[in-house]
Every structure is written in C-alpha cells, then in structure tokens.
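Technical appendix A lists one of the benchmark inputs used to test multi-chain prediction within the project. The record comprises four sequence entries:
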Amino acid sequence: MKQVKIALLGIGRIGKIHFRNISQQFSNASVVAVSDPQYDEESFKKEFGSVFFSKDPEEAVAHAEVNAVLVCTPTSSHASLVEAVAKQGKHIFCEKPLDLSLERTASLVKIVKEANVKLMLGFNRRFDPDFMQAKKSVSEKRIGNVQIVKITSRDPGLPPIDYIKNSGGLFMDMAIHDFDMARYIMGKKVVEVFSKGLVLVDKDVAAEGDVDTALTTLIFEDGTYAVIDNSRKAAYGYDQRLEIFGDEGMIQVDNNLHHRNIISDAKGIHHALPLDFFMDRYAKSYLKEMELFIDALVKDKEMPVSGEDGLEATRIAFAAKTSMQEGRPVKLSRITSQ
Amino acid sequence: MKQVKIALLGIGRIGKIHFRNISQQFSNASVVAVSDPQYDEESFKKEFGSVFFSKDPEEAVAHAEVNAVLVCTPTSSHASLVEAVAKQGKHIFCEKPLDLSLERTASLVKIVKEANVKLMLGFNRRFDPDFMQAKKSVSEKRIGNVQIVKITSRDPGLPPIDYIKNSGGLFMDMAIHDFDMARYIMGKKVVEVFSKGLVLVDKDVAAEGDVDTALTTLIFEDGTYAVIDNSRKAAYGYDQRLEIFGDEGMIQVDNNLHHRNIISDAKGIHHALPLDFFMDRYAKSYLKEMELFIDALVKDKEMPVSGEDGLEATRIAFAAKTSMQEGRPVKLSRITSQ
Amino acid sequence: MKQVKIALLGIGRIGKIHFRNISQQFSNASVVAVSDPQYDEESFKKEFGSVFFSKDPEEAVAHAEVNAVLVCTPTSSHASLVEAVAKQGKHIFCEKPLDLSLERTASLVKIVKEANVKLMLGFNRRFDPDFMQAKKSVSEKRIGNVQIVKITSRDPGLPPIDYIKNSGGLFMDMAIHDFDMARYIMGKKVVEVFSKGLVLVDKDVAAEGDVDTALTTLIFEDGTYAVIDNSRKAAYGYDQRLEIFGDEGMIQVDNNLHHRNIISDAKGIHHALPLDFFMDRYAKSYLKEMELFIDALVKDKEMPVSGEDGLEATRIAFAAKTSMQEGRPVKLSRITSQ
Amino acid sequence: MKQVKIALLGIGRIGKIHFRNISQQFSNASVVAVSDPQYDEESFKKEFGSVFFSKDPEEAVAHAEVNAVLVCTPTSSHASLVEAVAKQGKHIFCEKPLDLSLERTASLVKIVKEANVKLMLGFNRRFDPDFMQAKKSVSEKRIGNVQIVKITSRDPGLPPIDYIKNSGGLFMDMAIHDFDMARYIMGKKVVEVFSKGLVLVDKDVAAEGDVDTALTTLIFEDGTYAVIDNSRKAAYGYDQRLEIFGDEGMIQVDNNLHHRNIISDAKGIHHALPLDFFMDRYAKSYLKEMELFIDALVKDKEMPVSGEDGLEATRIAFAAKTSMQEGRPVKLSRITSQ
C-alpha cells in the first residue's frame, strides 16, 4: 500500500483528533470518507470540508478508494463494524474495547485473522513519549531484569453516571488501559489477578453495580507482578504515573504538568498541576499511534497493538471483576471465551 | 518520675545509638547501668566510661537507681528480658519484635499490663521527621479522607544468610515496620491480608524457606487499603517512600538523599542516591523515639507505640506469611494467639 | 482584515516552520506567495505544493492577494525588504534583528510608522508557554513587586565560525533575546548596562573579535536589575532558565527536558537532558507568535512585539558591547541612532 | 597538642552552639573556661555546669590549661581579643569579621603570624555538607574548568535596625560570606568588583546609609566571574543556593527544605519551604568547622580558613561598597590597608 485512504467511522471527540492529525501530519495518508449519524451532509461539509460523507458507515467503508477504516463509534457498535470491515477486506484501527463481551471479542479476533486484514487496537497510552521511553529503557536492560511494575492511574473526575452505566465498569472501561500497559512494559504473560474495589467517590456508582476505586495485583508467569491503583477522581487532576523496578535500578515516569514554573512564596514552593484533560495529556500518543498504524500498513508490518492484545486485556478485566466479586485471586486460565 | 535512670541491655549497633543519644541529648535521663555479654568490665569502661556494668542483664536491671530498661539484645532474648523487667516493676523500651512467636508476644503484652509498667516498642520509623510530618498532615485532614497508603520499602542489600535464618522471615523481620507504618498512617483496623512473595535477589534465601521480594495488600475495616512493596535489594540504595491518597489530595514522602547537589553533564542531570545505611537514614527517628519514651515516663503519658501495636503488626506478619503460602487473602481474625 | 494572505520571503529553517504552522493551524490565514533564491519554481512546487512562487521577493510581495509579509531571509536583507514591504502598505512580521546597524534600525521603525503598517519583531521566546506563564504571574502580582530577573541563556554548542563572523557578535545575535526577555518581564525602561565578556569556548571566536561567554547587568529606571548569563556552549545542552524575585516570592522557570523518565541506578538518580535544538525547544513559541501576529491583523490590534521593542533591544546590545570594550557601565542614553 | 583545651569568649547564640558541639561531639577537645559579661558565676553555672567562669575574658584566656580560644563576642571586641590571645601564644578561632576596619584586619593577620599561633576565621558556610560536596566535585574536575559561580544569598528577613547600624553594612555583614564562598569555590584571585545596591525592603535601612538588596560581580584574575545576588528579605525564607558552570557541566546546590513531603491538592503541588533560621540551616557547618579547627590543632595542620582569607573577603567588601558609591567597577588592587 502506498497511500492509506481512510474511512473514518464516528467523528466525535476522538474521531476529530484522528481526522485532524491525518489531515495535517501525514503525506502518505488521507481521510477519504467519513460517516457519523450525528451529522448530515450539510453540517458535516460546513465543519470539515469536502470529504465524502454518509450517515451510513457501510457506505463510507464501501467507498472505492478506502483501504483502511478507523472505528471511532460508541463501543456498542464496534463489533458489528469491525466484522463488516474485515469482511470487506479492509484494514482496521479500532478504539478500545472491541466489545464488552469476551466471547464476541474472541470471535472478532478470529474473524479478522481469517479475513487476513490487519487490526490495531487503540491502546494509545503505549504511544505516549514518556511511556515509550520507559519501555525502551526496559528493553535495553537499563534496569536489568524487571521485577515489579507499579501503575498509578487516577482520573481527574467521575464521568457522568450515564457513561458509567454503559462503560462495562471500572475494570473494562478504565483499568483496561493499565492492564495493557502492564503487559506492554513487562512483555510477559499474566496468569493470575487479584482485585479489590470499592466506592469512595460517589454512591451513585454503587447503584450501577460498579466501583470507583480499585487496586489490582497482576501475577506474571514467572511470579513477578504489577500493582495498579485506580481512582475515578484525584483532587489534583489526572494522575498517570509508572514505576518500574528491576535488579539494576528503577524507572519512574512522572506526570506531565501544565507548565514548568515554580513559585515560592510565604506558604510553600508550588508546582503546576498535571494536565487534566485526557486529550491534552495524551495528544502526542494519539498522533503517534496513527503514525504507527499508517506505517504498519505502508510497510506491511505487524501492528504495534494486536487484536490478541485487546483480548488479553479484556480477559484480565473479566478476571479482575470476578476476583473482586469472589474476594480471592483468579487464575486467568479460568477466563475463557467459550 | 523526674529523672529517667536507664539500664541498657545490649550495647551493639542500636544500643550504642541509644547510649550516645541519651548521654548527649537529654538532661532528664541518663544511662546508669549497662549489660552486654560481648564486653567485660574493663573493655566496657575503656570504651564507654564509668557507668555501672555487668555481663548479667539481671544485675543491670536490679541496679537500685534504675527505673526504666532498654532491651536492645538479640530478638531471641527479648521475651524473657521483658518479662523479667516487668516483674521488677520497671518501665520498658524494647526493640521490635517482642518475640517471633505470636503466643509469646500476646502473653508478654498481658504480663506487662498486669505488672502495670509502661512498654514502648521500637518502631522507630514512625518518628522519622518526614513520616511524622505526613501523619500530621493526615491528622489535620490536609488531604481529606485517606483512601490508600502505598509504601515502598526496599533495603540496599541482602543481609547475611545467617541473619536471614534467624530473622523470622521477610514479613516478620522487614515488612513488619511497614505494617506498623500502614496502621499508624491510617489509624484504622486491618481486617485482611494478601501477600505474594518470591525469591529474586539470591537463591540461598529460598533454601532458608524465606523470600526476598514481596507485595502485600492490607485491607482496613472500611474497605480502604494499603499496598506494601518490599525488596531486600535495591541497586540504588535504601528506598523508603510513602504515598498517601485522600479525597482532597495526595501526600508523597520522598527519599532522603546524600546531598542536594545536582550535576548536569553531557549524559544527563544527576542527583545523589538515597542515604543507604539505616542508621544514617533513621538517625533522627532513633533520637525522637527516645525523646518520646523519656517524655512519656516523665509526664506519665501513654507510650506512642504500645505492646498492642507490636502484637497487631506481628499478627499481620503471620497473616502475610499464611496468605503467601495459601495463595489467597487471609482474614486477620484467623490469626489468633491461642 | 478577515483573511491574512501571506507572502513568505525566505523558506529556510525558520521559514519552513512558519509555512507549516500557517498551513496546518490557522483557518484565517494562508501563505499565498513564497520567494526564496535557493529554489526554482520546479523544486519549490515539488517540496511545498502549488503556491505562487518567485525567486524575486518583490514579485511575491506584489502578489495581488497579499496583505501581510513574513521576512525570514538572512539578516543582511531584512532592512531593504522591510522598507520595500512597508512602502507597498503591507503588514510585516520580521525575524530579529531588523538590522545590525542602529541607525538603520531606527530609520526602519520610522519608515514603518509613516507607512502606517503594522510590524512585529520575531522575539519568539516571549511566546514560549512557560515564559508567558511567568509573565502572567508577574502581571497578576503573584510575587508582589519584581526586584530582580536572572536569566540563564546558554546554547548547546558554538555555531560555525562563518556564522559568528556575520552575526553581529554575541550581544547582537544571542543575548538580544535575553535583553528583550528582561524588558518583557520587568515592563520597565533599561537605563544602564554593564557587560563582561570573554572567550572560553573556542579561541577562533577571539580571532573574529567576538566573545563566547558573557555576563550582563541591566539597570532599570527604578534601580532594580536583571542579570544575564550567556555562554555559546553548555555541555548538558540548551539551558534556558529564568528566575524572577519579588517582595512576595520567586518564580523559577525550569528547562524543558527530553522526557519525564527518572532512572535510579547504582550511580545516581538520573533525569533527561534539556531539549537541545532551538526549533524543538521553542516549537510552541513559533506557533504562538504566528497566532498572535495573525490575531493582531484580523482584530486590528497592537502587535505584541513592536519595532520599538526591537530598537530598544538593539540599543542594549550596543551598550553591552561598548561596556565590555570600555570596562565600565554604559548609560543607555549614550546609545543614540544619530 | 593531644587535647584541645578551649576558652570560650562570649556564650551568646553562636557561643552556645560551639559549647554544646564541643561538649557532646569531640573526645579530644573540651571547653575549660568561659567568659561572658552577660552572666555572673551563679547564673552561668546554673545553665552550663561546673566549667571555670569569669566575666573577664583575659582571665579565661589566661587559664593555665587553655591552649585555644574561641572568640564569639560582638564584632567590636574581636580585634582586641584576638590580639591579646595571640600575644598569649594561644591558638584562635574567631567569628567573622576580624574587624570592620581594613587596616586593623591587616594588622591582626600580621600580629597573629608573628605570634606564631594558628587562626581560623568562622566562615562556616564553607563547611555546609552540600557546599563541601560542590567544592569536592569542582576539585575533582567533575564539570571541567569552572567558568562562572552564581550565588543566591537571601535572608528570611531584615535584622533589627540597631543591628544594621553596627553591622558594617550589607557587604561587610552579609555578602562577605558569599565573597568568601566565591573565592573558596573558584580557588582564584579576585581582581575587580562591581556592585549595585538599593533599598527595597525597608526605607529605614537607607536612613542608616546602608542597602538591603545588592548585586555584585566579581572578576577573577583569568577573566572568569562570580555573580552574587543578595537580599535581606525573601518572602519564602532563607535562600542559599549555588550554581557552578564549567566547560563540562554544571553543579547546582539546592535549598535545604523543612521536610520532604510533597502535597498535591486542587491548587497545586506543594513542597516545604527552606529552613529559615541560620542556626538550623547551618547546624552541620558549625559542627564541621569546629571539627576541622580541632583537627588542625591536634595534627598541627594548616587552618581551613586563614586570617588572609578573612582579609581578602574584607577587601572585597570594601571594594563592593566603593563600587556601589562610585557607580563603576573597582580594581581590588585599589583597596589597600595602608
């Protein structure tokens, strides 16, 4: 493939980021078709210009020039769209998760494989420059053999309860990024999961059968582990840190602050807060993941995040939920898709 | 009590610190008798001057002026000495742990109570100025209601295998400080313990039936938790950090570095390593705990660390070991001293 | 003006940045003509697409649609181009400096004024987000009345001697940014300049009659001062820091590091080096200055950096050189353009 | 000399620190005599125990056992006491400055030399562990050849005007420490001084003919320089920093904060303020300077700060004052003691 001609399905918050990044930054890729039920042709053209538009995603996918599709619609439509696109023989970038059901996720991975198309899952955090740097240092054995990964992942605030309701729960919606990060950094197989969860931010979350605070221990095949600390609300903003401990040292990845001014006054020495909106905090990772998606297509390489990666993270999320409910560790081998 | 007249039992590494601190820093306390089987009267006087000395601890305790006793002997003799001192009606400061046996620990707490003497356990880390500051901020609700405590506690290097053999194991010897720290910061009851442990530093540790790396989750009565990350060896030195997360903020306690010079050169920006010897790192906490012990005696106040605190930390250590062996969380209520 | 239609004169390193930023980021501005003697029409179109191109800047300026011109050519041609553009009645953005001669600089400011066009000087550092934040805090009296500004401004390495030869010297070429920064932060008139300079990096610099290391004290009208510390070579990279001291506190602006990974190993705790290429370090400031230039045209507002600002910085640079040569402080009033 | 037997003249704030340090920390030194006009024998013994006491310093110096004398009295009596002690053939530690007059200072240095006794000046900051570490790194060529030293030295608050009146002025009283520090770090001869000073903290300072804010440039014999930034009042406390720039790197010495807790909340990320009382900030340096004084006597070595060091710092202070008054740089060779 020389030029990646993209159909973008869904042009909401994330879809817009990809649209803008592709339009401005890549000479070997372009968006040639867009679908989104929230727009009609007139309102779309007014905002985004003269790209082919249809309310119907199938029409966008079917556009003759299109050879790759970005699925940026709500989660509930991911599965059917990914299946449809695969069957058209076009390559796929899909925002996480593929589906809230484990069975459906597994079957999609299989379908995509059989269709012989490439699939990349949008675990964008892997492509944050700071986290990539950490992974690079780990790969270069800069801290020897890695023994522990500690992930702090706290949101700046609770999403609307309506969002929570359809999210699949904290593990499936939020911690799944961290489960993927732990696998990415460690490069090992998770075999066991122990999770505790509770409601400390807002009682309405409990009414939805969900939690807003959780602690998860992942055990890898060699007995080493990851600890993931999640909260839906940190008073000081979006807290996204990593600490990796190896037998020759430690890597810490700090938060990304609003600015580098330090003010000293009679009350203390004050630094800026972390960037608190995920689209600012991860702006570079959205760009980088698209660069790598395009690059994998143009150079016919393996995708940097596969459907299997998505499936594994989903299995861990299910194990975490089960562990929390049962009050004990859960072997990942129990979580099967049949 | 106006003047605290102390018998010091055992003048090894820790005993010397207390001896020096008491001699130099307190006008209302003095060491009036010392016992240590490693010295004879001549060698003792040569090194420490003209204080009453006996190889026999009972003679030191029985010294007419003595009204308080510091037990700084090897762990195996703590129990019998504490019991003997209590029966003499003299107050006690004892290095941790009271005993490696839970039953004996429980009975000592009872004996001391019945003897109506005061007992302070040497959980010195509580008295580190940085950790005291953190506790103070928590008490003042500076970060609202505390939800999670994360403790990083890594030694600069493995102690000799002979030490490991008699230590009671990583949980009883090393993590017990962190179990106490978690209880101290949270001020709540621990109800459940989940521990994973493995050998990553030195295989000889496994031969002793011990681990050198561990991760422990403590669940408090209200569902909130602590995570404790232990290693017997951090390549960069003694790693003693704390992170406390509450609904209005976070407190982080950083390591105490060798100095505050920062060198920038062609390879990077370099800061000094953490203080790597526990007696340097916690020099101020040894002094502070003695100040508070003396103060509690002089003002007839409650001890800042009680025998019950020691018993609880010991129960948690037993639960941690059990959890690791059983591969599942253990309710603390299972760990009883009968 | 609704749409800013720009002629870009010179599409070297800086010109390319502006070309790309304008093309990608602004809906109310576009580059409609480009000139550069280094390209011919074919090579230009191949690299930059179908914009009007001429080797002759006058043709680009004269393009019917053009209402604003960016002067990004070598310094020696700034003056004649600015004058020509002003006489065409089109607005001007000019990279610093307007000219190496004080008289010519002063006359250009006058010419521009008489032509009644807007002129912005490219003191891009004012628009770095961290420095803008510092200026904002100063304006909000966050540290009370400002007493001292300390600027550290060290390049990652010496430019080629050929560059040095035509640069106008360290004060005119490099420190001039810092002179402008000091004026910008303080918002006061400089009345006296004392500079020391010497050659510590490369003796060839001395052969050109220039220095590579300098220290300048600026005295403001109220007796307060700025200190500027310049070096052409810092082993650890591009060092661009600011410290502002006021009667109610201090603002420090730290360097912008390559990443936020911290590695601790047996040798120390290591942070990344500062960004070492000026186009990376100041990427956001180039974008922001263009945004503000366009905004000032569209809304018919005052330019955020005026020709007078350029003239003042140039006068300070002359005073600095004179002070260094005479070995004593120089009143700025001595530096006149007649 | 095997045992240093000390007469302490003046037991005010500083005298008390030395008294306590010598009593507690050194086995080869003791205070055997004390004089202070503020005490009588009874009040002295009550507070300090059974050391020989006299209101008359000559009696303390003359005490048969005494072989070294600490001069910790007000500045106005330093000269006569140092002279008297030297004539008794006893060694001297004297708090800075020897005298406010340059002539008297020079003559004292001569007298001491002729008396063949050792003299150490109390430039205690040289012995701060962080600054010693910086000096060590410089000596080890860790940053190559040193080009610039930048010293920030700001007090937490203005002393009483009565103190100012008798202090000899900001340069002689406060900046003199920094002049010595610059010489110590650089290890080169100062040849020229340029100072600006003004009153920004309190107008009453102006009424005393003094300044409360100053900036000094020192030029060393090879053209390299130091910049010293002084203020009598920093809102955020005692600001004592150092930055040393060399051709292979930079050393920064940060402030010493009250504690290492970092609190993140909705308003920012907050660190503790610097230690704000000089006796806390420099506690270790007072101990270290005494250790080195005693060591130099016991081992018959050169003193780490000589009378000549005191004289040079005093000459620089005079040059700084002259420069400020004349509004131009002053060659140090102009400042002579005849």
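The longest strand of chain D covers residues 146-154. Chain D touches chain B through 26 residues (CB under 8 Å). Comparable benchmark entries are summarised in Table A2.
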